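Here comes an entry:

___
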Amino acid sequence: ESCSVLARFSKVKCALMPYIYGQAVLAHESGIPVFRPVFFEFPEDPSVRYLDAQYMFGERMMVAPVMNEHGRVQYYLPEGIWTNYLTGARVEGGRWIQETYDYFSLPVMVRPDSIIVTGYEDEKADYDFEENPIIGLYEISDGAKITAKIPDKNGEYVSEAEAKREGTTITVQMKGKTSGYRIFISNRKVKSVDNGELIGSQGGSMIKADGDKAVIRIED
């Protein structure tokens, strides 16, 4: 199956299918649409009540389409540190942002305290999402405990990633059916890892896990 529909997201491509398909499964089970108003996720923020030029892409991502030939876009981010999924840039929320993009990009923002699961395939959409996933952690706050379910290509949840942070220690626990996995901590440097090894540091820290549970110590 072609991923041409996702070509506008440049680097996102088919690797994001575990997240996208997981949100589609959630929509099927709950009736909550994959594309939803920002107000749906942030009802306590009065600034989002009338936003009509941006939307939530599932529970964890916000997209602001560029709708002019100049590439200029203005969008609002609720409170917290958001991460531009395409560039890795950290952006302080609670305010309006104005940026300029080319034809191959747009704001795709990950909300704080998020797990984004990506896959190993970037050429096709139909593959085994539970095999060799990357568990992406974005701005996990001290005391937070978050989870993300991973479906197989038949739409059944077969595994779950759980991340918990206490001080400078992040514990990642995998449950269910998973064949190998890596952990990516956006914009964070790692001091040490139990049950894993640091294998990359571009845009954050990439860890190859060994076993169902990894204990990661990050720098302040």
